[in-house]
Write a structure and sequence with these properties.
single chain; Rossmann fold; Glu/Leu/Phe/Val/Trp_DH_dimer; oxidoreductase activity, acting on the CH-NH2 group of donors, NAD or NADP as acceptor; 2 domains; binds 2-oxoglutaric acid; alpha/beta; binds 1,4-dihydronicotinamide adenine dinucleotide; Glu/Leu/Phe/Val dehydrogenase dimerization region; nucleotide binding
């Protein structure tokens, strides 16, 4: 793996390898870009097939956070931590405190939070060693309801574009994955009068959605082909691909899952087919917007965080507008929105201030 070549090509600032013999910690902190502010991004714990896979994941996710934070209008750069290990069996207080000490040593260049495989308890252990951790139980808490609300608002913006109304009453929405985000999204949609079709690999999650929201159930591999207005991927990445696109009968793809397009070209194909794709990192920024509110000098405020999440409606509109004006697919328009903000703010910061 040519790490410096990758760092040069995609403009990474730091990649920090963290090891602690006592706790067994093997982790990577990747900081992609801090033009807008300290890098903020969650801490993922996963069993990787190789160290190279783990480093690649940290790099890819850190860069994704730069774009997500920039497009969301946050004064934050992008970073991510990857802890190599099984989240069910390899966790300990010592492991997360050891990681916390590494994060502390960066003196605020990187702020961590929850991600796949980590939870509020793990964040508390990190907090024993550093203040550079957000999303604690006593402050902003579980980000999923905020992410779900952001997805709902983004869907409304997309609906206004395609159906001429943001009213989702009577619209059919197919949700893939009714876990933390999917469940909360289903609740908003049900209350708005939408008809739901759901799938999940966990029976309990399906049962909850069917009973509470009168949702129709289909098997996991059937969800792509159902007749619907909106397909909402809220489970896995890479689900928009050569096998699934021909099955889609929706007019909009809008969901919380990260990295929905298997490859960028799949975003081009959606556009050719006349399906509006709402870029994942634009519509799923509710969680990070909420977590970032903790960094406000006056402290965390839930109502303010919710108001900011609601603005995802406007960001989605802006991306759609750019896509139309510049005749590019929405995923490329989203990248331009993020890159232009970083470039503009970098230029503003160019002048010298006496400290
Ligand atoms: N929780 C949050 O605030 C954020 C979540 N995301 C992304 O949104 C997605 C969902 O996140 P959460 O709801 O937190 O995760 P979760 O783990 O609570 O829910 C995911 C659900 O998908 C189901 N699932 C897994 N494989 C499936 C398959 N093949 N077919 C159907 N269902 C399947 C799982 O059983 C689970 O119920 C993930 O991709 C995550 O990275 C992105 C930004 C923030
Ligand atoms: O929402 C969080 O807890 C951190 C943000 C993040 O890592 C993400 O949005 O993927």
């Amino acid at each position: 793996m040519k790490i410096f070549e990758i760092m040069e090509t995609k403009d990474y600032e730091n990649v920090i390898l963290c090891h602690d013999k006592t706790s067994g910690l093997n982790a990577i902190i990747a900081i992609h870009d801090t033009t807008l502010g300290p890098a903020l991004g969650g801490c993922r714990m996963w069993t990787y097939d190789s160290e190279e896979d783990a480093i690649n994941d940290a790099l890819r996710l850190a860069r994704g956070m730069t774009y997500k934070n920039a497009a969301a209008g946050l004064n934050l750069g992008g970073g991510k931590t990857v802890v190599i290990g099984n989240p069910r069996t390899d966790k300990s207080e010592a492991l997360f405190r050891s990681l916390g000490r590494y994060i502390e040593s960066l003196k605020g260049r990187y702020i961590t939070a929850e991600d796949v495989g980590t939870n509020l308890k793990d964040m508390e252990y990190i907090r024993y060693e550093t203040k550079y951790v957000a999303g604690l139980a006593e402050t902003s808490g579980d980000p999923s309801p905020f992410t779900a609300y952001g997805v709902y608002r983004g869907m409304q913006a997309a609906a206004e574009e395609i159906f001429g109304t943001l009213d989702l009453r009577g619209k059919v929405v197919a949700i893939q994955g009714v876990g933390n985000v999917g469940y909360n999204l289903a609740k908003h949609l049900y209350e708005a009068g939408a008809k739901l079709i759901v799938t999940d690999i966990f029976e309990d999650n399906v049962k909850r959605a069917v009973e509470e929201f009168k949702a129709e159930y289909v098997k996991p591999d059937e969800i792509y082909g159902v007749e619907c207005d909106i397909f909402a991927p809220c489970a896995l990445g890479a689900i928009i691909n050569d096998e699934t696109i021909p099955q889609l009968k929706c007019k909009i793809v809008a969901g919380s899952a990260n990295n929905q397009l298997k490859e960028e070209r799949h975003g081009d194909i959606l556009q050719e087919k006349g399906i509006l794709y709402v870029p994942d990192y634009i519509i799923n920024a509710g969680g990070v917007i909420n977590v970032a509110d903790e960094l406000n000098p006056s402290g965390y405020n839930r109502d303010r965080a919710m108001r900011k999440v609601s603005m995802i409606f406007d960001t989605v509109k802006k991306v759609i507008q750019k896509s139309k004006e510049e005749n590019i697919p929405t995923y490329a328009a989203a990248d331009r929105v993020a890159e232009e903000r970083i470039k503009t703010i970098a230029a503003v910061k160019d002048n010298y201030i006496v400290k």
